[in-house]
Amino acid sequence: MAQVGSLSAEIETLNHVLSLVEAFRAFDADNDGRITEAELGGIMGSLGYNASEQEVRAMMQQGDKNKDGLLSINEFLELNTKELETGNLANALSAAFEALDEDGNEILTGEELHEVVANLGLGLSLEKCHNIVASLDVDGDGAVSLDEFRLIVDSLL
Predict the structure, then answer these.
(1) With CB atoms 3.0 to 4.6 Å apart as the test, which of 56, 75, 90, 113 could cross-link to 156 if both were Cys?
(2) Which residues contact 9 (CB under 8 A, 6 or more apart)?
(3) pTM for the structure as a whole
């Protein structure tokens, strides 16, 4: 079983990534999964970073891997999570999702997430698990698809 300190760090990391996803979605006005340089500046400000226009431009250039002038949510998460030590959490979450998908429907609910994190020894309440699912639920169906979940796991690898 993992140590309490490492579990706390993993939960903190997950919360950080979820806050990044929530901020991205809040500033992605047309919900196309891509943001402009101006929207990136707004996100950084909402997260408490007072980045200059020059710093935002440099971040945009660094993160925009396909050079389309926009940051996808994947590019944004990669840019903002690359220095986190998150491999263990990502592996645990990926294995947990696969374990839940016994019926092959590739859907995760708040209740299922709560059951898995409890089995992993992570102290997340059912309410927090519902909030996590809601923050990842792109299509509003009350559950997270495998693709939606992979977005977070990929950002942690």
Answers:
(1) 90
(2) none
(3) 0.60
